[in-house]
Each structure stands twice: as C-alpha cells, then as structure tokens.
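Hi V.,

Quick status before I head out on leave. The structure for the redesign project is tokenized and pasted below; the design run finished overnight.
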C-alpha cells in the first residue's frame, strides 16, 4: 500500500511539473493559474496573464504546454551598455486550436510569446484577446526613461 501511495505522489508531482515552464537558470517560472498563467521571478509573482488567446482560439482547461527545446542568440548591438549580447531561453508550445499555437520563451531575465496562425490566406487578422496584470511593486526597466502617462504627454 505504501508503494502505491508513493508512486501516486510521484505521478501527481510529475504532472504538476509538466505544467510549469522555467527559464534556463530556474529563477523565472510560468505556472497555470485561474484560467491563465502567473509569471514568478525567484518565487515572487511579477506578472499574471489573465487571459490568453487570439480570435476564437483561447486557453481551455486541461491544455498543456510542451517544451520544444532551447533557443540561443549571439549578436552585436550598435550601441548601448554592452555591445556583445547573448540570450539563452527555454521554448514551450501551447496548442490553442487546430490553427493556433502560442509559443513562449522564458529567458533568465524575461518572457516573450507569440501566436502562430495557420490557414489565414485571405482572412482578416483575428483580434488578440491576451490581457495581463503587472504585480504591484514590480520594477520595470522602462519606468526610468518614460513617464507613466507617455501616451497622453
């Protein structure tokens, strides 16, 4: 009986880990929460994707992210603090419907995502439905250079 319980716990924890996406250094994580995702840095929530989707394709209960590998970029900037830059991230894919995938990349210091649409042809671009909330107290890189009302200034 004890072996069955331990085995069951291992299965449940591996299923939970399959839903979590991590950056290469493990400090940035993405976890499902309330029909969306929460992004944590060093276990502190910094961003909540409250709604994920585009057009008629949106996140449904039970959909799972699949790891697709690592991505690496090595490039030279024309100006800035550092001219030679490297990025390394883990890539994940979430199939929203037969024609729509969400591709997420978790880097050690950030998150990027895009929607990949197939079979558009002559159709209009669908409306993006993604919404997010930035956790109160989260420092943003842009806040030093731009005022909070940059759009109305």
């Amino acid at each position: 009986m004890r072996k069955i319980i331990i085995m069951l716990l291992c299965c449940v924890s591996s299923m939970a880990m399959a839903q979590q996406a991590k950056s290469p250094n493990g400090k940035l994580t993405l976890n499902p929460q309330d029909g969306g995702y929460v992004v944590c840095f060093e276990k502190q929530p910094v961003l909540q994707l409250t709604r994920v989707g585009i057009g008629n394709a949106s996140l449904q209960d039970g959909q799972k992210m699949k790891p697709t590998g690592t991505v690496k970029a090595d490039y030279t900037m024309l100006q800035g603090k550092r001219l030679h830059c490297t990025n390394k991230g883990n890539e994940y894919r979430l199939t929203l419907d037969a024609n729509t995938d969400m591709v997420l990349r978790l880097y050690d210091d950030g998150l990027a995502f895009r929607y990949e649409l197939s079979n558009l042809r002559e159709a209009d671009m669908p409306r993006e439905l993604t919404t997010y909330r930035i956790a109160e107290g989260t420092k943003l890189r842009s806040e030093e250079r731009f005022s909070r009302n940059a759009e109305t200034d």
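Above is the designed sequence. Helices lie at 2-19.

G. will cover questions while I'm gone.

Best,
W.
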